[in-house]
Amino acid sequence: MIKIAICDDEELFRSEMEKFVSVYGNESDTEIEIDTYESASQMVKEIHDSGKRYDILFTDIEMPGLDGMEAAMALREMGETAEICFVTSHGAYALNSYQVDAVGYIMKPIKYTEVKRAIDRAKISINYRRDAQKAKKRYLDIKISRNNVTIDLEKVVYIEKRRNQCVFHLEDGEYICYETLSKIYERLDHDSFIYTHQGFIASFHHIKEVKRNAVCFGRGVEIPISRKHYEPVKATHMDKIYRLREEKNHSQNHS
User: Contact, 48 vs 78, CB < 8 A?
Assistant: First the structure.
C-alpha cells in the first residue's frame, strides 16, 4: 500500500494526475490510496489535524494563498517524511526544491512517463524507510542482570508479570528482566502485542484461540483473559482470521 496526496487548485490537473497514479497502480500491481486537495492550506491543515501520513505528495507550486513550496516547508517542520514531488508550469522553482528534499519535479503538461519515474524513485526511499521501521519494531533491548540482551519479538509468544519482574516467553525459551509490564508495553508495537489481563501481554500473531477465560497458543499453552480485555482481544483475533482468509482467496484467484 502506498498512500499518495495530490494537491492542485485546478481540477483538470488533479484529475489528470489521479488518473496517471491509478494507471501506475494497475500496471505495477501496487495498491494505492489517493487523496486530493484543492489548496495547499487545506492539505497542511488535514495532515496537521488528523495526523494522517502519506508516502508521496504531488503538489503544484503556484496556488492562491499558501503555495506548494511553503506548504512543503511547513510539512517538513511538522515532521512529515513523505516523498515530495512538485508539479508546475514554471521551471524557475526547481532550484528551491532541494530545501525540502524533493524527490522530483514534473513540468506541466503532465506526462505519464514522468509520473511513473517519480513514483519509482520515491518507492526506493519508502521501502528503505519501511524496512528500518520494521527492524525497529521487531527487536527489543532489555537488561538481564548486568547484560543487555536483544530479543526477537517475532519469537515472543507472551509476556508475564511475575512479582517485580517481566518474563518473556519465547518459542524456544524465556528471558526475565526487572522492568514493569506497563513500561515494557510502552516499548512494544501495539499492532502486534495486546493486553489480555493486567498481568499478561500476548503476541496476537501467536494466538490460536480466544476462550472466555483464556487465550490459547496451542500445545497446551494458555494465559488468562479478563472480562475487561475479552472483547478487544477477540475482535483483534477475528480480524486476523478474516485478513488471512482474504489473502488466501486473493492468492488463489490470481494463481
Answer: yes
Cα separation, 198 vs 224, whole angstroms: 10
38-81, pLDDT tens digit by residue? Answer: 999 999 999 999 888 999 999 998 899 998 889 999 999 998 88
Give CA angle at 172 (171, 177), nearest 5°: 90
Other Cβ atoms within 10 Å of 49 Cβ, number = 8
Distance CA 27, CA 100 (A): 29
- β-pair partners for 158: 169, 202
- Go through the domains of the chain in sequence order and give each one's CATH number: 2-136 (3.40.50.2300), 145-253 (2.40.50.1020)
pTM: 0.59
Of 72, 94, 96, nearest in space to 84 by CA: 72
Residue 156 CA to residue 159 CA, distance in Å, equals 8
What is the C-alpha to C-alpha distance for residues 76 and 221, in angstroms, rounded to an integer? 47
